[in-house]
Amino acid sequence: MAGQKKLTVVISQHQGKNPVKRQLEEELAMAFMIDPEIEVSIVPNLYDLSHDHTGMLFLQGIRGDVVVLSWLFPRATQWILDRTGVKGKAGTVFLVGEDDEEEEDQDEAAEKNPEAIGTLDVPDRLIYSIDLRASTDPQEFLAEIRRISEVTSTETVDLMSWIQGEPKKEQLERYLNPQEVFGIGSSQTGSIAEVEAEEKVSRRWYPVIDYDRCTNCMECIDFCLFGVYGVDALDRILVEAQDSCKKGCPACSRVCPENAIVFPQHKTPAIAGAAGEVAGLKIDLSQLFGGGDAVEMAARERDIELVRDGRDAVGLAIGIPKRQANTCGVRDDLDDLIDGLDDLDL
Amino acid sequence: MAEDLVFMMGKYEARVPTDCLYSKSHLWLRKDGLRYQVGFTAYSVRLLQDVYFLDWSVDAGVQVFEKQEIGEVESSKALSTLYAPFDGRIVEFNELLLDDPSGINADGYGNGWLFTLETDAEPLTPEQYLEVLEGGWQKTQNMLKGQVN
């Protein structure tokens, strides 16, 4: 059975034309192309793709397990995809930045806030998000993807043993490679589907919600005065008007009490969606030492955008959370966290 | 001398000596003639852990205003921009720390002082600082949690 099912690998390109990054992308694409177990496609930077961009349509058309390599934190990749309907369970990736090797918290289950509303309609397939910054050595990525390829093909065998009757080889192929329907992917061995196409992709800036953290508290919708947020039919918070967001402004992310709002291109890792990966980075204590707290900073950032729009600055007068009221509870795990700072090896 | 006040950071006892005054930005100020000697409180040091880099972006002798950026600190666990605690004039930096900032960890309320400041501001009393710590603890934990997660 192994070998019949190809693993779909999608490379999301870097926004810029940095030759080193391009080279890694190209080397990987070439290596995957000649690997009979892998079906590779290249799309422009995921974050910049509109919902109806060919690259996004292609991603939406993939039914089976998929590996997405991007220059983004895996959490950012996961939730960008989720927002456009490319859903799945997060596959476990072993290739993470070199500083994180000791991290035990890679288990995505550990990241979940028990009060989070979660995402809906998650199909039973795995999406592996790999950060292309995790290594500069293409071999490491190849090794990781071969590992994933083996894991997923093993799972397929288990799945097949469930099904009564033997599907014909072609039927199975069609079932496992439905992207052919879109005429983009090709099941030919060694093909490469370059979806870059002529469609122009410009840089975008908008928030991405991590529903494994979001508790639907609505503070973001109250705070943002640019109409970016909305709710869906089930009254769940939603980034409704992505492109109404103000370029460079991460203010809503700062007011989010659960740190559930990700701006994948922000320079601060905590805002850009670093998760377990913060291991290689350091805690920024500037707020504590007088840098103004997050809410003040957010209000200032919002005012700048309001004034730029010809509107009046509102300072702290509108949409400022009054969240401290009922959060004085137990939170023992946080005490542990502080006491455990020494062990965290941050 | 009166006994130190103590703030519990989880299980860690952060000392708040009663012979100092304080700023909301977690610095202590001890009157030394016409000026104050200023340093990191035990609370700050606990969060920073081992400091191994300290850099000032302003020169000694300059006027500073509250919240003005004056330097940077980096430790094994954290980094931070440093800000002037009050309006005033920075008279002198602790030269010893520039070569080896470990004094901050070894003797934070003594030889680990950071700079001296002339100011007319009225710093917080130890009791007031303790209130600041108690009031801000939840927020600090949330902030750390947000970054560590």
List the topology elements:
The complex is a heterodimer of chains A (346) and B (149).
Chain A: E1 7-12, H1 19-33, E2 38-43, H2 54-61, E3 66-70, H3 74-83, E4 89-90, E5 126-131, H4 138-162, H5 169-176, E6 192-194, E7 208-209, H6 219-223, E8 229-231, E9 237-239, H7 251-255, E10 261-262, H8 269-272, E11 283-284, H9 287-291, H10 294-308, H11 332-339, H12 341-344
Parallel strand pairs in A: 1-2, 1-3, 2-6, 3-5, 4-5
Antiparallel strand pairs in A: 7-10, 8-9
Chain B: E1 5-9, E2 12-16, E3 21-22, E4 27-32, E5 35-40, H1 42-48, E6 51-56, E7 63-64, E8 69-75, E9 78-83, E10 88-93, H2 95-99, H3 103-106, E11 115-118, H4 126-148
Question: Could you give a short description of this structure?
Answer:
Chain A is an alpha/beta fold and 346 residues long. Chain A contains twelve helices and eleven strands. In chain A, the strands form three sheets. Chain A has a six-stranded parallel β-sheet, with helices on both faces. In chain A, strands 7-10 form a two-stranded antiparallel sheet.
Query: How far is the first residue's CA from the last residue's CA of chain A?
Result: 44 Å
The topology string of helices and strands of chain B comes to EEEEEHEEEEEHHEH
Radius of gyration of chain A: 21 Å
Percent helix of chain B, as a range, is 25-40%
Number of helices of chain A: 12
Biggest sheet overview of chain A = 6 strands, parallel
Quaternary state reads: heterodimer
Q: Which pair has the most extensive contact?
A: A-B, 33 and 40 residues
Gross morphology of chain A: globular
Q: Write down the secondary-structure element order of chain A.
A: EHEHEHEEHHEEHEEHEHEHHHH
Mean pLDDT metric of chain B:
90
Strand content of chain A: 5-15%
Quickly count the helices of chain B: 4
The whole-number mean of residue pLDDT values of chain A reads 79
**Alpha-beta content class of chain B:** alpha+beta
N-to-C span of chain B: 42 Å
Regions of chain B with pLDDT < 50 over 5+ consecutive residues? none
Main structural class of chain A: alpha/beta
